[in-house]
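Page 42, continued from yesterday. The earlier attempt failed because a stray header line got pasted into the input along with the sequence. Redoing it now with the clean sequence only.
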Amino acid sequence: MFHITVLAVGRLKERYLVKGTAEYLKRLAPYARVDVVEVDEAGFGESPAPSGREKIKEKEGERLLKRIRPDTFLIALDIKGEARSSEQMADVLGRLALEGQGDITFVIGGSLGLSRNILNRANLRLSFSKFTFPHQLMRLILLEQLYRWFKIMKGEPYHK
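This time it went through. Structure tokens are written below.
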């Protein structure tokens, strides 16, 4: 059975996001053990200078790195990463399972994105879209997709 960690910067604040993530965590239970781990966001003012933005990402990156297990397959959600279809990601999960790699971590950065250290550590940089999503909403989207990928991988029906 897979052990999947969703490692995210920040805490969910909106009630609808909390309820939605709880629903998908429940749906995922037959397929994998899924843990959500949150690290604190680094505070910043209205519009930090570019150098300040990098320092914030580095600070959040250090917090994330402390929570990444050494042998996990790390997938960083990155707008500049590779775009894949749901079917292709189901194939990735299937391949990892065949290779005995059942420990997978997805990392979601804060509002400024991920640090270079996290991106360099990633085994796969995955883009969900060229659109920018709020990082809290991205957690719900990721969980829904994980559920979809497992349904595809198992050949089970999923509403379209």
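Notes: The chain has a mean pLDDT of 93.
Reminder to self: strip header lines before submitting.
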